[in-house]
């Protein structure tokens, strides 16, 4: 059976559409042969609780993907609202690794210092997805300091309006043990 032909959607138009989806902002770091690579990334989601699995989509041709693939391990640092400069510096193509923002954990993973949360991961699976690679990570360590998150929305950084936070007691609130 013939497939319907894909509509021609200009990339700029599509990016504007995708930008309506507000996300947090992370930095993914991997090391190989004694060299650290890292990138700002918002294509992150928590996938499974048993076992603990997370997913990131990493662009092909990025140095970070090469290091993730070679080392089989990586960290994900969830940035706080004060870390906009960190997000910008880790998103600059071809730039030297901005090591001044990082610290080494007891488990030897390199993470962003002062991040709201970190996930230390081993690569469970890699799956090509167009111009990106889907990287499934098994979480082997976490830290969680809290703080206000950095938000990315319509190509801009910002914060969360506290009124928008799910109130305690609501059935989908994270800490009620219900829903997610
Ligand atoms: C808010 C935000 C969210 C993002 N989310 C994601 C995400 O989910 N997934 C994702 O893959 N990326 C994402 N990015 C982009 C990513 O952070 C950048 O592409 C970053 O530079 C990758 O770093 P790297 O060192 O791994 O790769 P780099 O080696 O910097 O390469 C990244 C790309 O830039 C090209 N490049 C390398 N050097 C140069 C140069 N000197 N001039 C021009 N181009 C060059 C490479 O060919 C490659 O295509 C996001 C950026 C921002 C700001």
Descriptive account of the structure:
This protein has 180 residues and is mainly β. It has a single domain, classed as Electron Transport, Fmn-binding Protein, Chain A (Pnp Oxidase, Chain A), CATH 2.30.110. The protein has three helices and twelve strands. It has helices at 11-18, 63-71, 84-89, and strands at 23-24, 26-32, 35-41, 44-48, 53-59, 73-78, 102-104, 110-112, 117-129, 132-144, 151-153, 156-158. The strands form three sheets. It has a seven-stranded antiparallel beta sheet with strand order 3-2-6-9-10-5-4. A hairpin with a 2-residue loop joins β2 and β3 (35-41). Bound molecules: flavin-adenine dinucleotide (FAD). Flavin-adenine dinucleotide binds at residues 25, 37, 39-43, 57-59, 61-64, 87, 91-94, 132, 152. The site of flavin-adenine dinucleotide has 21 residues, from β3, β5 and α2.
Mean pLDDT: 91
Helix count equals 3
User: What's the CATH class, please?
Assistant: Mainly Beta
How far is it from the N-terminal to the C-terminal residue, by CA? 39 Å
Largest sheet: 7 strands, antiparallel
Q: Beta-strand percentage?
A: 35-45%
Weakly predicted, low-confidence segments: 176-180
Strand order of the largest sheet: 3-2-6-9-10-5-4
Chain-wise SSE layout:
Layout: H1 11-18, E1 23-24, E2 26-32, E3 35-41, E4 44-48, E5 53-59, H2 63-71, E6 73-78, H3 84-89, E7 102-104, E8 110-112, E9 117-129, E10 132-144, E11 151-153, E12 156-158
Bound molecules: flavin-adenine dinucleotide.
Flavin-adenine dinucleotide (FAD) binds at residues 25, 37, 39-43, 57-59, 61-64, 87, 91-94, 132, 152.
